[in-house]
Write a structure and sequence with these properties.
The chain is of the alpha+beta class. The chain has one domain. The chain is built from one helix and three strands; from the N terminus they run E-E-E-H. A hairpin with a 2-residue loop joins strand 2 and strand 3. The longest helix has 20 residues.
């Protein structure tokens, strides 16, 4: 039996967002590390800003990843008609 691709384990979700020291080679403060998961896949990244800004940006990225995975975005295919 195959698993339905739209089950909740197939959607990307936030696993964690934690404050961290600035990554090497960066300046400023207020850095966070986020972890996004989808099944056994993990995406880890860094973002500067307060916790709400980082959470909002991460949620927007997750929305785009899920839309891309399940084809919810409309695509317009343009074709060039031959000149007469």
């Amino acid at each position: 039996m195959t698993e339905n691709p739209t089950t909740s384990s197939q959607f990307y979700t936030i696993e964690s967002i934690e404050p961290i020291d600035p990554p090497t080679g960066t300046e400023g403060s207020d850095w966070h590390q986020y972890v996004i998961v989808q099944g056994t896949n993990r995406i880890s990244g860094y973002r500067q800003g307060n916790i709400e800004t980082v959470r909002q940006a991460t949620e927007e990225n997750i929305e785009l990843l899920n839309e891309r995975q399940f084809g919810k975005r409309a695509r317009i295919q343009q074709s060039i008609s031959p000149k007469k």
